[in-house]
Amino acid sequence: MLSKVHHVGVVVKSADEALKFYRDALGLTVTADRVIEDQGVRGVLLQIGNSEIELLEPVRDDTGVAKFLASRGEGMHHICFESDDVAKELTDAKARGVELIDQAPRPGLAGMIGFCHPKSNHGVLVEFATPIEGRH
Amino acid sequence: MSAGATHIDHIVISSNDSAATASLFAENLGIEIKRTMSRPGTRAHLEFAKLKEVILEFAGPGEVQPYDEVKAKLWGFVAAVEDIGAAIAAVRAAGFEAEEPHPAIQPGAVFATVKTGTHGVPFAFIEYNVLPVPEGS
Predict the structure, then answer these.
(1) I need a labelling partner for A27 at 20 to 30 A (CA). Which of A83, A101, B1, B20 fits?
(2) Nearest residue of chain A to residue B7 (CA atoms)
């Protein structure tokens, strides 16, 4: 069962530049900042209440995030819902006819994650996440 | 000095058929649509779901035109603050532009859009319980 919005993903050209607004001006705290090599992105999570903002900066040109940035520019990329069982969310979504990008959970910045294909949600990219122990 | 954003108040998902997109999200994700409304004075049709403190707002035209396919996108989001004047002052002090607060659609609330620095994200602040709430709201 989806319990809350875990984060919204925002594609940016430069996470350092975006932090000037999202961290410094808004006063949000960075909870994670690392390069996810297999996705070709630098991801930065900032806590805002019980949710987070995920800044995504492509570090390679051959990734989905880089292609998104090239075609659409900076902006909102996906919405992630938290679940205590991301595998079950993926299974249940598939049973409801939702096309999945990830057939099984995989590690991501937010914990164990899985994406639904945007065409199953009128073009909106939806992620499920089960955070790692000790984080919300 | 910072804006002191306390949480995401709502996330806007725009669609050429907001009722259809809200219905699809309800079906696909098991979320409950709690409220629908047509915004007074506009042609917008809005549907709302809520997960904890975050509202999902599905926004679209009041009169849906014929379409080949329903298209939706994540539009932007609104952060709640406890002092919108201080929040605006903070973003301006950081070198960004923000409009003056004005009454929001939400009864008793005030709203201000941040114009620059958001990196492609339509973004605004909202503060609740500022203005008198009309009876019946």
Answers:
(1) A83
(2) A49
Q: Which two tokens stand for residue A38?
A: 């297999």
Distance from C-alpha of B125 to C-alpha of B114, rounded to nearest angstrom: 8
- Cβ proximity of A47 and A38 under 8 Å: no
pLDDT digits (tens, 9 = 90+) for B6-35: 999 999 999 999 999 999 999 999 999 999
A75 chain-B contacts, CB cut-off 8 A = 74, 119-121
Would B33 be classed as within a structural domain? yes
Minimal-distance CA residue of chain A relative to B56:
A5
CB contact under 8 A, A21 and B7: no
| Cα of B8 to nearest chain A Cα, Å | 7
A2-130 is classed CATH 3.90.1150.10: no
ipTM surpassing 0.90, yes or no?
Answer: yes
pLDDT in tens, A68-77: 999 999 999 9
Cα–Cα distance for residue pair B59/B98, rounded to 1 Å: 23
Name A126's bridge partners.
A79, A116
Question: What percent of chain B shows pLDDT beyond 90?
Answer: 76
- Positive or negative, the CA dihedral A91, A92, A94, A98 is negative
Cα–Cα distance, A47 to A56 (Å, whole number) = 15
| Residues A49, B20: C-beta atoms closer than 8 Å | no
Count of structural domains within chain B: 1
Alpha-carbon distance B118 to nearest alpha carbon in chain A (angstroms): 7
Enclosing H/E stretch for B55: strand B54-61
How big is the A-B interface in CB pairs under 8 Å?
131
- Determine the structural domain holding residue B96 and report its residue range: 5-63+73-127
